[in-house]
């Protein structure tokens, strides 16, 4: 009798453990319909347009011979070729003025970085030309 009770208990435990391991049956989730996405304006074209505006604005300054701009998000990188060689303080003042005027005229730009270093100007020109 005792062996029967042990066998019955072991059998009940095995059945209970197997029943507990079975995956829970849930109803299949209803698929959400794909809603059409409105076409976004081409970000690259928008940035190129802003870069063109920056170049026109900076080229209008009498101290600037030519300029090149590259816009990434809300940051513009501007490379300038100056007409005359300026001293360090005057050059920094001109860069600050270029940055402030550009931010004022194009408010969607959070930052405007200006350089007159020939190597960086060349890199900006090459990247802006792509």
Report what the structure shows:
By secondary structure, the protein is of the alpha+beta class. The protein has a domain at 43-128: 2-Layer Sandwich (Alpha-Beta Plaits). The chain is 51% helix and 17% strand. The protein contains four helices and three strands, in the order H-H-E-E-H-E-H. It has a three-stranded mixed β-sheet with strand order 1-2-3. A hairpin with a 2-residue loop joins strand 1 and strand 2 (75-82). The protein is rod-shaped, with a radius of gyration of 34 Å. The N and C termini lie far apart (90 Å). The mean pLDDT is 85.
Characteristic terms for this protein:
single chain, 130 residues, 4 helices
The CATH homologous superfamily name of the domain at 43-128 equals Cation efflux protein, cytoplasmic domain
Helix proportion range: 40-55%
Strand content: 15-25%
- Low-pLDDT runs of 5+ residues are none
CATH class of the domain at 43-128: Alpha Beta
CATH architecture descriptor text of the domain at 43-128: 2-Layer Sandwich
Number of helices: 4
Short description:
The mean pLDDT is 85.
Topology summary:
Elements (H helix, E strand, L loop, with lengths): L1 H20 L21 H17 L4 E9 L2 E8 L5 H18 L5 E5 L2 H11 L2
Parallel strand pairs: 2-3
Antiparallel strand pairs: 1-2
């Amino acid at each position: 009798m005792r062996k029967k009770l042990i066998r019955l208990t072991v059998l009940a435990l095995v059945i209970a453990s197997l029943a507990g391991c079975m995956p829970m049956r849930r109803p299949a989730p209803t698929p959400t319909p794909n809603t059409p996405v409105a076409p976004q304006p081409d970000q690259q074209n928008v940035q190129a347009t802003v870069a063109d505006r920056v170049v026109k604005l900076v080229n209008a300054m009498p101290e600037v011979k030519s300029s090149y701009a590259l816009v990434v998000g809300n940051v513009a990188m501007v490379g300038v070729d100056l007409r005359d060689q300026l001293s360090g303080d005057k050059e920094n003042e001109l860069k600050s003025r270029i940055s402030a005027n550009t931010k004022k005229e194009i408010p969607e730009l959070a930052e405007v970085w200006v350089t007159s270093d020939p190597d960086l100007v060349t890199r900006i020109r090459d990247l802006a030309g792509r």
